[in-house]
């Protein structure tokens, strides 16, 4: 990548330049687009010229404010499909933008790196909000002082292995109704084991989808799962699902269900609001001791 040569070319006043965009989706698929009239190829990516994708001017500012831009395109069956957008495959996708000399792609400059924010679909088109890397600095961080655990089941702070058969299972779809309920084999886990857990679709049209489980009930040798949200892509009988146990973040659940109390990241003995509102009373024993005793 030779940015100096690109700048020298632009200084001639007759620049042969265009824009190129690369989008890497959550499932690892990378798509390339360009506003040039012919495809370009560099960094192992083919940038398609007939994608119908265009972008507004990139706004950059000094300091820690987020770079921002917007891309607009057409929904096409062989490129960006409505089904993939609904399935969430573009949510948070990584985005890169280059200014490229189209007759010598080695002369290019990376102008933007970020991720996709809000996506709006309307009348066969889509519009995406592009957020720069500094946008991550606007996200809240740090620990929360609560009775419940603030770790996520399976992360480094929690320590529970979500690939442990005692915690998770894989099972094919046996039935699905028109709503948000799915039936799989009962398996070895007890009733409500996967309640508040996570379901990942491993095979079929909806492969890669991740949804939260609302209810998990054993009924007649089968496990009936009710989801918080309807799946954006339909499942077929036989599609394989991965189910990970649910955790309500209570200390008792951490101890009994996962035998992981040593890694509990909450504060179960913190005083409650009743203690904070305690005041001396004339009928009490006012000896200077704790009001909670």
From TrEMBL:
Pfam families attached to this UniProt entry: Phage_BR0599, Phage_phiJL001_Gp84_N
- Origin: domain of life: Bacteria
Q: Which residues cross the membrane?
A: none
Q: Where is the Bacteriophage phiJL001 Gp84 C-terminal domain?
A: 192-274
What NCBIfam families does the record tag this protein with? phg_TIGR02218
Which protein are we looking at? Bacteriophage phiJL001 Gp84 C-terminal domain-containing protein
Q: What is the originating organism of this protein?
A: Loktanella fryxellensis
